[in-house]
Amino acid sequence: MHTLLPMAGECKYRVNRYNDDATPLPATLISRLQLSFTEQLMSRLYICTGPHCRLRGADTIRRALEQAIWQAGLLSRIECIASGCQDHCAVGPNLLLQPGGQRFHGVTPADVTRIVEMLNESGV
Fold first, then answer.
1. Residue 11: per-residue pLDDT
2. What are the residue ranges of CATH 3.40.30.10 in the chain?
3. What is residue 87's three-state secondary structure?
4. Which CATH fold would you assign to the domain 42-121?
5. What is the pLDDT of residues 55-89, one digit of tens each?
6. Which of 76, 92, 99, 114 could form a disulfide with 53 if both were Cys (CB 3.0 to 4.6 A apart)?
7. If pLDDT is split at 50, 70 and 90, which confidence band does 25 have?
8. Which of 113, 99, 23 is nearest to 69 (CA)?
9. Taking a C-beta distance cutoff of 8 angstroms, is the pair 104, 95 a contact?
10. What number of other Cβ atoms are within 10 A of residue 75's Cβ?
11. How much is the pTM?
């Protein structure tokens, strides 16, 4: 069994592999681990901001997505991230949903509400 020992500096605990004493984890460390786990489960919408998608309004779509996600109360479940080119320039602006790899092509500001509603209904 590994135990955690106090340390100085930013990292408050270290694993002591030579002691079999089963010391419970501090509540603050448990809450940090839970937060880290929650962040890993968060869905991410990557919006292409390559030159072709930018010319077709990717920045406007990103702002509309962020607003729609906020209005739907999904900030804790969906994160909108500007990405580089997604190599689908002919059908942009493009969105990529991770995990899962679902793609949306030719997205317009009018599509944003429908996409966010669909994500909310699917439990993302």
1. 45
2. 42-121
3. coil
4. Glutaredoxin (3.40.30)
5. 999 999 999 999 999 999 999 899 999 999 999 99
6. 92
7. low
8. 113
9. yes
10. 13
11. 0.66
